[in-house]
Specification:
CATH architecture: Alpha-Beta Barrel
Strand content: 5-15%
Shape: globular
Distance between the termini: 16 Å
Helix content: 25-40%
Radius of gyration: 17 Å
């Protein structure tokens, strides 16, 4: 079975891109580079990964693309551009010349305006994303879901994926409103969702039973054909480790067919990102 980790990161602290990475981040406050994941991928049986931006700079995206060009296992890069910049269209054109550049991810979770994605000023840039056949990673939290519903309707020809199941408040048990919003969103044909980043939204030491209601709901809403598995490594290290997360995922998917697991673990990501 093909296994693709649809969401992982690399960073190098001395680049200066990562203003959110401080010593208080503990285990994350160090360089994470391709050599750090080789054994983890091998032990977990993961064939390919998709690199996702972790800094709001075009320079970091170019850095990730340089790593992708050096390492065959990196199948694609989801980068960052300033969608409000006069240089945005030029940046998108330049980045899209590289085969492994697959899409963009604005850091919506860090933007105060929950309706930012609906700003009309973004339309030219988003139209260019569609024109270049790129994807859009929606890094959102539950408070952004009403705006995201309008966003997916406004751009029906843009492939959009929700990162980390929209980061539900698993610790607080805020299930119902999130569940209703995700069900409504799943009606949009151009929308997929990542089963990733859930452990860091849960209590320390969370178990399969703690995550199961949330994952089961995503499966019932989106189906295997619009769900993709990711690790969110190395952020995952705040809560667990690579091998433990893939073992938990196997348990979480134990009730679905091998056919459906093949989609969640690889086929959906391969098709969505055109890997």
């Amino acid at each position: 079975m093909l296994r693709i980790d649809c969401h992982q990161h690399f960073w190098k602290l001395d680049r200066g891109d990562y203003d959110w990475l401080t010593p208080e981040m503990g285990v994350l406050y160090r360089d994470y580079l391709p050599e750090d994941i080789v054994a983890l991928r091998s032990d977990a049986g993961v064939d390919k990964t998709v690199l996702v931006q972790a800094a709001a700079t075009v320079e970091e995206t170019k850095f990730l693309l340089s790593l992708a060009n050096q390492h065959e296992f990196i199948a694609g890069v989801v980068g960052w551009v300033d969608l409000e910049s006069p240089d945005c269209l030029k940046d998108l054109e330049e980045l899209s010349k590289q085969d492994k550049f697959k899409g963009i991810r604005p850091m919506i979770q860090d933007i105060v305006d929950v309706n930012w994605m609906l700003k009309l000023e973004l339309t030219p840039a988003l139209d260019k994303v569609i024109e270049l056949d790129l994807c859009f990673d929606a890094l959102v939290k539950p408070q952004h879901l009403p705006a995201l519903q309008e966003f997916v309707k406004r751009y029906p020809n843009m492939p959009i994926v929700i990162d980390h199941g929209a980061k539900p408040d698993i610790i607080g048990g805020e299930f119902d409103e999130w569940a209703v919003a995700m069900k409504e969103l799943s009606l949009a044909d151009n929308l997929c969702c990542k089963i990733s980043g859930l452990l860091t939204e849960a209590e320390a030491g969370a178990t399969v039973d703690d995550l199961k209601p949330w994952v089961d709901h995503l499966i019932s809403c989106f189906g295997a054909g619009r769900l993709m598995w990711g690790s969110d490594w190395p952020v995952l290290n705040l809560a667990s480790d690579y091998q433990s997360w893939i073992e938990m995922s196997e348990e979480l998917f134990s009730g679905i067919s091998r056919h459906d697991k093949a989609y969640i673990f690889g086929i959906t990501a391969s098709a969505f990102y055109n890997l």
